[in-house]
Each structure stands twice: as C-alpha cells, then as structure tokens.
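Exercise 7.
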Amino acid sequence: MDYLDETIATVSERIEVTMAPFAEELARLDTIHGVARRTAEVLIAELGVDMRQFPSERHVASWVGLCPGNNDSAGKHKSGKTRRGNRWLRAALTEAALAAIRTSNSAFAARYRRVMRHRGHNKAVTAVAHAMLVTAYHLLARQTTYQELGADYFDPRHAERLTRRAVQALERQGYRVTLARAA
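Solution. The predicted structure, written as tokens, is:
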C-alpha cells in the first residue's frame, strides 16, 4: 500500500510539473461546475490548449464521441447511439457531468432535468457532458472565464413555449382558456 501511495505521489508531482505552463487554462476550466482539477488536466492533455485545430465545437464533440446521433430514413428511426471517440476524455466528461448534475441552481443540472424527462438518465448525462465539452471548447478558444447562467436561465427564454404547453394541458382537461397579461 505504501508503494502505491508513493507511486501516486510521484506521478502527481510529474503531472504538476507538466501542467505548470498551463496554469491559466487550468484555472479557467476549473470554474466550470463539475470540472475539478483532474478533469481540467485531462481536458488539456487530450484536447490541448490551441483550439484552432478544431474548426468548431461540433468537430470537437465528434472527435470525442459526444455528438448526438440521429439516424432517420423514410420515417424509420434507427439507432442514434453516439459513436466511439476519445475514451479517456469521454469518461472524464461523463464523470464531471455526474458531479455537475448534483449542484443546485446550475445550468447543467437544469439541462439534465430537461433532457431526463424525455430521454432518460444515460442520455441526459451524455447531453450534459456534451454541453460541458462545448463550454470548455469556448473557454479555451476565446480565452474567457465561465459565467454560470443559473438553473432558471432557459425559462424566461422559453416563456412562450411554457405558456402554450400549460394552455394545451388545461384544454385537454376540458377547460376553455383565455389569456390576458397581468398589470
């Protein structure tokens, strides 16, 4: 056990020395909810810090294997399974997504709850991991800091959709609904 602890300490020191030139990027990625230092180190080790190698966030998601699949033809829905990509980065982002969905008042947790209703736990976690990857891409490409949007960020943006769904739900129950703006 002591040997393993010593080996882990030695490897951790080597990682610290190797990551020292990327301290700014590590700090930037560490601000994302669910992304701890080790996950940020995996992101930098697998992606690098120069995002010019990827033309867009869609290319990064495809390379990692976190792009959503959609295989429809002639009205038949075939498997939309995500493809195999960089398994180390995918595993690290999935673990980070599982941590992010447990934070309260987070945009990632709200995204998980929205997708979870219709698609299930695994697809919702993959969707959050994809969102985290896109966020990390933009932080590294634009060299900006992460601004948490909050859990209720999408509600005002989709207020019309929420209103329409509520009206439809009441009409299905046999009510006649007339909407008027409150003063």
